[in-house]
Amino acid sequence: MRAQPLRLCPGDDLRSAIEQAFQGQGAAFVLQAIGSLSVARLRFAGRPQADEMTGDIEILTLAGSVSPAGAHLHMTIADAEGRVVGGHVAPGCIVRTTVELLAAVLPGHVFSREMDPATGYPELVIAGARCAP
């Protein structure tokens, strides 16, 4: 495992910038990130579409997996009134001032996503591993 810090800049699309930063590196996990957004797009549990929030938004936590198949990221945010929500990161989250992120790059591991009939979603597949019982 190799630690990889990353800073995203104002105007960056959070999800695509993370995917681009780790492209070609195989498998990685975002361990944590903090920062701010001007636009947050989160898909809440059980909903098919992302909700959009705008304004001064703080990232409290950000974690997930990154692979050539894309990213699966979850984030908790707080608005300017201190209200906290969290969910699945959708494209279109725009960095306001900065995002400071730490990832663990996992050389020798290969991640992909395959449709899982049990969940109905494309789920993480780790080459050479199976779902834990």
UniProtKB/TrEMBL annotation:
Report if keyword DNA-binding is assigned.
yes
Its keywords, alphabetically, are: DNA-binding
Which Pfam family name is an example for this entry? Answer: PCC
Q: What are the recorded GO MF terms, alphabetically?
A: DNA binding
InterPro entries (alphabetical): PPC_dom
On whether DNA-binding is a keyword of this UniProt record, the answer is yes
**CDD domains (UniProt xref):** DUF296 (cd11378)
User: Which residue ranges does the record assign to the PPC domain?
Assistant: 1-127
PANTHER family referenced in this protein's UniProt entry, alphabetically: DNA-BINDING PROTEIN (PTHR34988:SF1), PROTEIN, PUTATIVE-RELATED (PTHR34988)
Task: Please report the name of this protein according to its UniProt entry.
Answer: DNA-binding protein
Organism, per UniProt? Pseudoduganella lutea
Instruction: Tell me the organism's taxonomic lineage.
Output: Bacteria, Pseudomonadati, Pseudomonadota, Betaproteobacteria, Burkholderiales
